[in-house]
Prior knowledge:
Order of helices and strands: HEHEHEEHHEEHEHEHEHHEHH
Number of helices: 12
Distance between the termini: 30 Å
Structural class: alpha/beta
Low-confidence stretches: 5-66
Helix content: 40-55%
Mean pLDDT: 87
Number of strands: 10
Largest sheet: 10 strands, mixed
Strand content: 15-25%
Amino acid sequence: MMRRSLTVGFVMVVALALGLGLAACGEEQAVETTATTAAPATTTTTAAPETTSTTAPAPETTTTEAARPTQEPMTIRYATTFVETDAGGKIVQYFCDSVEDATAGAVEFDIFFGGTLGTNMEELGLVSSGSADMVSLGHPPFADQIPLLNFPRWAPPDAQGAIDYFNYLVFDNPDTSTLIQAEAASNNVIYLGFTAGGGNVFIAKESFAKLSDLVGREFGAGGLAPAFEAMGYTVVQSLPSDTYENLSSGVIEATRMDFASTVDFKWYEICKYYMFDGIYAAGNVFAVNLDTWEKLTEETQAIMYGAAAEAETFSLELGATDTAASIKLLTDAGVTVGTLSDEDIAMWWDLLFNVSAVDCMARAQNLGIVNEMTTVLTAAAEFTGVEWSPAQ
């Protein structure tokens, strides 16, 4: 399996050769939020699932100890919209502490929590320009600038599977990793790794056991309307900020959202029936400014890769703990929590992937990167076991 060993020089040459003149555009469809949680292992237990990391350590160097250059002391400005007490903030702190410990303080971090340096819509610009040396990049808002990284952003069957899916496409598959890392280099950044997002749930005011049970009910959606309409749902536009009121007033009877947000927004006060849909998110890529990266020795770069891998594992463990606590909160509040059948999960993932792929290919057509996007989507479909072809 190919390791995270693409050199910066090679990636930048490939970026120039590919000629990825990717336009910066503000077009962004409404997307569902993701949070750093993991879904339960079964429908009958509140115990968090065990997690293991399949991310391999950073590539070893062959430089002898005597010849290895010493890392010059430096401070890395880390910008994030997370606050310190968020799961995301804890993961950022974990990563930074790991690097500081492993470098014996040669590399220190100045972390700007809570969007101090910029909003989530400004993160790519911050790290590309060097205004920040590093960010936890939430990539969906930048679909026109980094379209190849914006492949369908969920995967079955669990939180580990979603992390593996992202790592496979961005680091391990030689065809897709070359394209995606070159795209990153064209924006003057390099990717180190990803953190786990959470599970997603269908929720309703009345009992349901399968997705077909929701046909005929008013279904609230802020995005992905074609996927819900394909299942026969009566879709009503409902942004997350309006959904509690819409559920309370009867404008909508059901919706789908990431699990953590439904808890944060207290939708469980109205919807007493939850079903995890077997699809999990990953994202918030550790992104480093390339000029900053080149100031690090090979040894320090290896440490950074290793810290990102450790942070991935930490995010899975933290998510499992948070999810178990949230499930207990819901069951104590009288909510029934379950998981869709394997058949419903497979049907839903096939539909979700193909609807997302339509958007990806339309964007690729506009940007002139149809061949590159086809390569990424083909590998994504094969990895997640879904049927897809460019003709669809």
